Amino acid sequence: MDRTLPLNPLLPRAGADKPDAVTPAAEDAAHVARATRAAVEFESFFISQMLKDMRATTREMADEDSVFKDKVNQDMQDMADGILSKQMAGQRAFGVADAILRQLVPAKITPGNT
């Protein structure tokens, strides 16, 4: 581990004044992009798990001849839930990604505050 790097990734790194060094603004933008991507992926995972638990409960409560007990329907519903979770996370429907970004990225450069 390079001990010259600061713990805060938004602070300029040692040697940033060299011509071949990446500028702090570029590092900030890259950090925001990575943090945003990770936050949206986590929100997608969160929504997916929630839908999975909701489907499992519905299947347990369903009658034996219900469409929810059919294995083919279960697989298709799981696939549809995966797609739905990605779409909802992309729209930041639940606000989980936004809450994560408020903690990871300073308010002055958070996407959506511009």
UniProtKB/TrEMBL annotation:
Residues covered by the Flagellar protein FlgJ N-terminal domain: 52-103
UniProt-annotated stretches for the region Disordered: 1-25
Top-rank lineage group of the source organism: Bacteria
InterPro entries: Flagellar_prot_FlgJ_N
Pfam families assigned to the protein according to its UniProt record, in alphabetical order: Rod-binding
Protein known as: Rod-binding protein
Organism: Massilia litorea
